[in-house]
Amino acid sequence: MPDGWKDKSHRYFVNFLIGCPRGIVYHSSIDLSIKRHTGKLICAHLEKIVYEVGPENVVQVVTDNAANYRKASLLLMERRPNLYWTPCAAHCINLMLKEIGKLKRVKYCILKSTLITSFIYNHTYLHALMREHCMREIVRESTTRFATAFLTIQSILVNKAGLRSMIRSNEWQTDKAAMSQLGRQVETTLLNKRFWARCNHVVSVTKPLEWALRLSDSDDKPAMGFLFDAMRRAGEAIFENNIWNEEILD
Asked: What CATH number matches the domain at 2-87, 3.30.420.60, 2.60.40.60, 3.40.630.30, 3.50.50.60?
């Protein structure tokens, strides 16, 4: 199982891990900072590890669904027909959420949610004010995990009453930052019924996918049957809510 990552100096490494009944074992790492991450290069490293471990001991290669890893795995299966490739379920679901996030209505909710969280967290006083009015912190969006954008929307929905109470308070109405143009945009968004309706609709579609993502990304080793059932439910939710129809709620 190859796992790519970057260090603080932006050097790109790939860790190779081996899964077995006893758990996950670290095998080796390679530095690809100054090399092109081609499918042929990755395939060569995978084949080398298969040879070291013993072809008779390897039945499956699990990678993310990026084009170069996909090509590397397909090449490996051609050379070693006794192996098969499986794309990482968590990465595939993240890519699904990324594509959903490109839809006009969904993108609107993500941008507005990012505006709200960034503005509040960038002002210490307003952050403290939010803590007084809301039940919990708002999940902040991550640049590497697409699911966090939808977790942010869910978190804003959970704190809807507290956020609306906060912008009506004297502390908000007299704060210099809250009275700025950006602050007024945040206030207008939080009072906009269409914003809340769209957020509810987006969450109704993405929540089943997020549950499937948690299941596939957990350390509890769930049976594949549970994952297949979770994906089936997510598919049904997407069809029922007709997320691709941009005329809904407009």
From this structure: 3.30.420.60
